[in-house]
Here is the input.
Amino acid sequence: MDGPKDATAATRAAHAALAATLPADAESDFADARRGFIDTIPDARATNAAGRAVWDLAPFAFENDPTAPDTVNPSLWRQARLNLIHGLFEVTAGVYQVRGFDISNITFIEGETGFVVIDPLVSAEPAAAALALMRRHRGDKPVSAVIYTHSHVDHYGGIKGVLSQADLDAGATIIAPEGFLQAAVAENVMAGNAMNRRATYMYGAFLPRGPKGHVDAGLGKATSLGQVDLVAPTRSIVSTGEQLVVDGVEIVFQVTPDTEAPAEMNFMFPQHRALCMAENCTCHLHNLYTPRGAQVRDASAWSRYIEEAIGLFADGTDVLFASHHWPKWGRERSVKFLRQQRDLYKYIHDQSLRLANHGLTPLEIAERLALPPSLAAEWHTRGYYGTLNHNAKAVYQRYLGWFDGNPANLHKHPPVEAGRRYVDLAGGADALLAKARAAFDAGDYRWVAEVVNHLVFADPDNAEARHLQADALEQMGYQAESGPWRAFYLTGAQELRNPIAPSPTPRQSQLGQMRNLPGDSLLESLSVRLNGEKAGAEADFGLTLALADTGERFRVWVENAVLHHAPSEAAPAVTLARGTLVDLVIGEATLDAALADGRVKDAGDAEALGRLLGLLDRFDFFFPIVTP
Here is the structure.
């Protein structure tokens, strides 16, 4: 396996230049990140039932050195060391966080009889480890309720680490913002395969941990690799000002749709004078567009909701905490932080549109935009996760879409066809590579990546091109201040040097979230699997389907190569559980076997179900990204 290389002189010079511009106060965040520490477990390690570690900070021990290596941006190195701090922390009396057990934080509010849990991490095993640590120090109490702050998987996926199936069957209280389930399904199921594959790039999932590999995601250290589930909430928060008392804990909610997530909410605990800002205000610049892929976020609304939170909650706030990073203590500090975060997103929004209205394109806006000195002077406005560059493009896309107005960009050739033409224009592969090597030697890695990409797509078997492209991406990764940018570059380099072998059968991603979807959402998710070319060649057909575990009935039909479904009162012609349907879709069970063992009960439509299953695609998780 071809491994990573050292930082070049150009990369070392870039680091030195950046270091001279960083904010002066380098220590106060470390004090905040350690404040209230109670205890931890060794390396925050969590294992699954088979004994395999799904979360372990031991591989990041190299980050204990305060001096950044040449292969890591010095600003990102500081953030990485902050995110390495882990354990159970007291935020204020009655409010506790476990940080560093996943990319996100899990928060515990002590109620009269148990714990109110906020955001149970990405997967069950780290969430269970966090709950066990909390119980060790604050008593062996039950979980009285769970709150999902928003619809991203790192805030709900570990639900079964804090609530058992028996708890869920008994109707355990799960509170979420209105629209949570729809947003979670849309982001994590409908486009789940593409998004999750891209997320392996964004979070460095397959990179080695080390100074030449993954060091940090900016938002947190990394994502855990345990059991992920999507369990629907039992109570939705519809409007700002809504109040609940949960296990004796008073909560005042602020709904903030279309901010960091399509469905999100902040909330206040008046008894504790503690404000939870969900993921709307964290210790970095967030994404208006996330590189893993998602709908573009509304920077203007994001800013307005932060201003609204100041008006609603500032006077009663002694501590501010969020679903990532460390808290801010004191009203004055909290309000200053909120105002700067408010203005961070509004500045990007307003100035990107100002430049767009002058006729600049997304690429031109991204190159020009810079923060004002008052915001640039803060650590928490730096691009450890989102960047000014891609956030400016996101604002443009939200208002004006992908097209920049130049008709030359309206109907461009796809990468392979364009690549062949560019290589021919350059005088052939050897001539292109010679010019690209000269650009590499000059430290112009962005140009190398742009030019050589054409050759890689024209001729992916050209090893010299792949390796030069990898070398350029690697140096760009070393220079990146953003954790996701670094991970994208380095993962791309790794896969160019050591391509993932194709598979004769699809390597399907984890599909645990599908099994717990309401029937309507599950059937909707199947519609994006329908192979239109195959369906278009067949006559229209349909069936009546009953889901045994939910009692729901649906008419399901294919018409004009489109899969439809609607509630039905007709007698079911095929009956099966949701889990069985998922097993049939992904190939873990065959229809003949499921009919034979009784998991599918046929009253006349089994043949139509078989036809439908034959039209549904199975997605290969490891589709190529940096090669055709």
Observations:
- The chain is about 40% helix and 15% strand.
- The radius of gyration is 25 Å.
